[in-house]
Amino acid sequence: MWLRVSTFLYLNDFDAGVQHVWGIEIFTKSEVEAVNGTSVKLTCTFSSTEPVSLQTASVIWDFRSITILYYQEVPYPIEEGLFNGHVQWSGDIKRKDASITLNNVRPAFNGTYFCQVTNPPDVHANIGETVLRVVDKVTLSEISLLGAIVGGSCVVILVFLGVFVAVRMYKKRNKENDIEMRVEEYRNKQPTVW
């Protein structure tokens, strides 16, 4: 689900009789899920009423009141703490993309990320929000264990089914043999008439 956040500032120029509209719209996914240890892109795009310039546009990404990346002409990712070495600029200001990628995510990265964009004189905008959920991946050994349990259960069921069918066939064959033997005994006991 994408969130659209926008704020517009209307300024009246009473002398010229002109009304200016300044504002930025920010678009983010409301929630993103990533597997522990993988990379995930936090998308943030925007629209601006002003032409976008590398020299004037800036981006701030925050997590729990900590700026994890600042961008103006070049990215400045955080170089200390929890996110050191994990934040990478993935955006393209000319294409109105302010996205980042988090590499080797951990459960400690769970939470809400905030994307703020300014493009002077467009500086008035609400902040885009994305909630990241880091989930544990299933390891190969867990998959193997699950496969062994399911496979073993199937083998046990098939063995019981085979034994059940074999016992029924054995009983049926013995019953048929018993009937044939009784018929033969009956014939042998009857006097022969010639």
TrEMBL record:
<keyword id="KW-0732">Signal</keyword>
<dbReference type="InterPro" id="IPR036179">
    <property type="entry name" value="Ig-like_dom_sf"/>
</dbReference>
<keyword id="KW-0393">Immunoglobulin domain</keyword>
<dbReference type="InterPro" id="IPR000920">
    <property type="entry name" value="Myelin_P0-rel"/>
</dbReference>
<dbReference type="GO" id="GO:0005886">
    <property type="term" value="C:plasma membrane"/>
</dbReference>
<dbReference type="Pfam" id="PF07686">
    <property type="entry name" value="V-set"/>
</dbReference>
<keyword id="KW-1015">Disulfide bond</keyword>
<feature type="domain" description="Ig-like">
    <location>
        <begin position="22"/>
        <end position="136"/>
    </location>
</feature>
<keyword id="KW-0472">Membrane</keyword>
<dbReference type="InterPro" id="IPR007110">
    <property type="entry name" value="Ig-like_dom"/>
</dbReference>
<keyword id="KW-1133">Transmembrane helix</keyword>
<dbReference type="GO" id="GO:0098609">
    <property type="term" value="P:cell-cell adhesion"/>
</dbReference>
<keyword id="KW-0325">Glycoprotein</keyword>
<dbReference type="InterPro" id="IPR003599">
    <property type="entry name" value="Ig_sub"/>
</dbReference>
<dbReference type="InterPro" id="IPR013783">
    <property type="entry name" value="Ig-like_fold"/>
</dbReference>
<dbReference type="InterPro" id="IPR013106">
    <property type="entry name" value="Ig_V-set"/>
</dbReference>
<protein>
    <recommendedName>
        <fullName>Ig-like domain-containing protein</fullName>
    </recommendedName>
</protein>
<feature type="transmembrane region" description="Helical">
    <location>
        <begin position="143"/>
        <end position="167"/>
    </location>
</feature>
<keyword id="KW-0812">Transmembrane</keyword>
